[in-house]
Amino acid sequence: MDNSTNFIAKLRNSGLRPTKQRLKICEVLFSGKNTFHFSINELSKIIIQKTNEKISLATIYNTVHAFLGKGYIKQIAVNSEQSYYDTNVSEHHHFYDEDKNQLIDIHDSEVEPVKINRKIPGKKIKSIELLVKLQNS
Amino acid sequence: MDNSTNFIAKLRNSGLRPTKQRLKICEVLFSGKNTFHFSINELSKIIIQKTNEKISLATIYNTVHAFLGKGYIKQIAVNSEQSYYDTNVSEHHHFYDEDKNQLIDIHDSEVEPVKINRKIPGKKIKSIELLVKLQNS
DNA sequence: TTCTAGATTATAACTATTCTAAAGTAATAA
DNA sequence: TTATTACTTTAGAATAGTTATAATCTAGAA
Predict the structure, then answer these.
(1) What is A3-76's CATH topology?
(2) Which residue's CA shows the smallest distance to C1' of C18?
């Protein structure tokens, strides 16, 4: 059973039709051994590099939103210029290098777990994001 | 010595000309006893409410950038739809209520201090932002 | 094979933000 | 004061990221 078979099942199981485009995006996002961060534009370029074919921006946006909804990827709040996404959906934190415009994972062992001693009535915590902005020293 | 005198001195001391618009924005941002969060659009509306006059969006953007540069306010990374700013420049963290689109301060006593046990060569930490996203429970 | 709901696409539209260049104003010096 | 100059404000144009639209296409079911 190769990767593409896996992706077909993965998509079907979560109620998404395994279209050519979605499979291609799965390949790009989930075939490598490492997780990574990307913006929509970067993803578009990676797709062209790796597959020599272009997927329309609209479809990339649609697919990224669908994958977000299914929890395949997550969004990272960095700044308001563009959205960043992460193929690592486990709870973890980030350095953001403002000069290189680059996100770097912070591993659990590198930071004390964040503990919030306050509750907001009627609300539950959806996510905890820690962003450590870096500048040249 | 009233507020506006203070703001004139404040602006002059940091090398910004105390123009009518900048003074007005100072009033709106720094006269109240509480700090608060705002987007550019919200600020524009508050100015109109409080002074019955409109300041052009370009000037508001300019001024907010100038004030950011001088450290009068700080920016908060919430999402990529728009920028949020905070008149409380001390290091503290936030809840973000995604349903109400509202930021809520987390006080120091409500969270353990964040400690990062990792250094990135050639970089220094510029800021540590913790954002706790909330949803209806 | 046919049908249909869902998917893809190019492109238009929209929103937040930045740029431009003309007109206005604060600070300085005479 | 007045004149000069550099900085500021402004409307509106331009740009970038994202979302909406509507026509075409396709996966999956009948």
Answers:
(1) Arc Repressor Mutant, subunit A (1.10.10)
(2) B58
The reply to whether residue A135 touches residue B112, judged by beta carbons under 8 angstroms, is no
HEC profile of chain A: CCHHHHHHHHHHHCCCCCCHHHHHHHHHHHCCCCCCEEEHHHHHHHHHHHHCCCCCHHHHHHHHHHHHHHCCCEEECCCCCCCEEECCCCCCEEEEECCCCEEEEECHHHECCCCECCCCCCEEEEEEEEEEEEEEC
Q: Which of B79, B116, B134 sits opposite A132 (nearest CB)?
A: B116
* Domain locations in chain A as residue ranges: 3-76, 89-134
A56 touches strand C (CB under 7 A): yes
pLDDT band, residue A3 (cuts 50/70/90): low
Per-residue pLDDT tens for B25-43? 999 999 999 999 999 999 9
User: Residue A55 CB closer than 7 angstroms to strand C?
Assistant: yes
